[in-house]
Amino acid sequence: MKMKSGNNFQTIIYEKKDGIGYITLNRPQVLNVYNLQMRDELYQALSALKDDSEVRVAIFKGAGERAFCAGADLSEFLTAPSPVIARQVRWERDLWGLFLSLPQPLIAALHGYVLGSGIEIALCCDIRIASDDVRFGLPEVSLGLIPAAGATQTLPRTIGRAKSLEALLAGRWFDAEEAYHIGLVNRLVPRKELLSTAEAIARRIISHPPQAVRYAKEAVKRGLDMTLEEGLELERQLATSLLSTEGALERLRDSSRTMRPPSE
C-alpha cells in the first residue's frame, strides 16, 4: 500500500518528496505530546511507508519551535480501558515493533524537548541529528511508572547501562552537548540547519544502491542480538545474497572506478 502526501491526519503530517518520507509530529500547541490518536496515525503511516518502494529514507521531525515530542499524554493513557483490553490493543497495534521492523533508514531531526515517548521514537531511528537547544529526559519513574515503549532496552544499547540508569532512576536530563558526547545523537547543528542537515544525510543514503543500504541496516540491527560468530555469519549470508543479485558485479566495478571520499 502506498500513501500519498497530504493525508487527512490530525496529529501527524506525512509527505513524500524525491525518495524521502517526512513524518512530522503535529501537535505543537501541546509540545507534540504523543496520544492515542497519534499512535494510531503513526501506525497507519508507518505501515504504508514500510511497503512503499518509492520511499528510500524517512525523516521524523516535530512541528513548532519548542519540542520534538514532550512525552505521552498521560491523561489519555492512564484512563485507557482495562489492562486486559489495553494489552490486547498493544499487541494488535504494536507501533514500536513496527518502527523497529522498517527496512528503510530512519533519521530523527530533534529539537527542543525530547522527553519520554519522544526519546523512544528517536531511539527507534537509526541516525539522530539534534539542534543545539535540545533537551532529553525520561520522567516516567518520577511519576510512578516505567517507560513502556522500549527505552529501558534501547537507551542502554545506545549510551550504556550507567548513563541510562542515571536518566531512568535519578531523572537526569541531558542537554545537547552531553547528548552528543555520550552518543545519544550523531550530530549537533544550529536550529536553522537541522532539517537541511537531515536531508543532506538522507540524500547521501539515497545515492547508494537501495538493497545494499537495507542489508547493511539489517546486518547491524539483527547482529546486535547475536554472538560475534552469529553476526559474522549473518553478514556473510547477506553479502553473498547481495552479490548474487543481477548486475551486482557490474555496479561494483563501476563504483570502484568512480569512488571518491564523501564531502561533508
Keywords, please?
Lyase 2-enoyl-coa Hydratase, Chain  A, domain 2, 46% helix, 12 helices, single chain, 2-enoyl-CoA Hydratase, Chain A, domain 1, six-stranded mixed β-sheet, alpha/beta, 264 residues, 2 domains, four-stranded mixed β-sheet
Question: Would you summarize the structure shown here?
Answer:
With 264 residues, the chain is an alpha/beta fold.
What does this structure look like?
The protein is of the alpha/beta class and 264 residues long. It has 2 domains: 12-206, 2-enoyl-CoA Hydratase, Chain A, domain 1; 210-258, Lyase 2-enoyl-coa Hydratase, Chain  A, domain 2. The chain is built from 12 helices and 10 strands. The protein has helices spanning 36-50, 74-77, 83-92, 95-101, 117-123, 151-159, 161-170, 176-181, 194-206, 210-223, 228-243, 248-258; strands at 12-17, 20-25, 57-62, 67-69, 106-110, 113-115, 127-131, 135-137, 174-175, 187-189. It has a 6-stranded mixed beta sheet, with helices on both faces. Strands 4-6-8-9 form a 4-stranded mixed beta sheet. The longest helix has 16 residues, at 228-243. The model has no long low-confidence stretch (mean pLDDT 87).
- Rg on CA atoms, Å: 19 Å
**What is the strand arrangement across the widest sheet?**
1-2-3-5-7-10
What percent strand? 15-25%
Class inferred from helices and paired strands: alpha/beta
CATH homologous superfamily grouping of the largest domain: 2-enoyl-CoA Hydratase, Chain A, domain 1
Number of strands: 10
Q: Please state the overall shape, judged from the principal axes of the Cα atoms.
A: globular
Instruction: Tally the structural domains.
Output: 2
Could you report the average pLDDT, rounded to the nearest whole number?
A: 87
Order of SSEs, N→C?
A: EEHEEHHHEEHEEHHEHEHHHH
Give the name of the CATH architecture of the largest domain: Alpha-Beta Complex
Query: Which regions have little confidence, pLDDT < 50, spanning 5+ residues?
Result: none
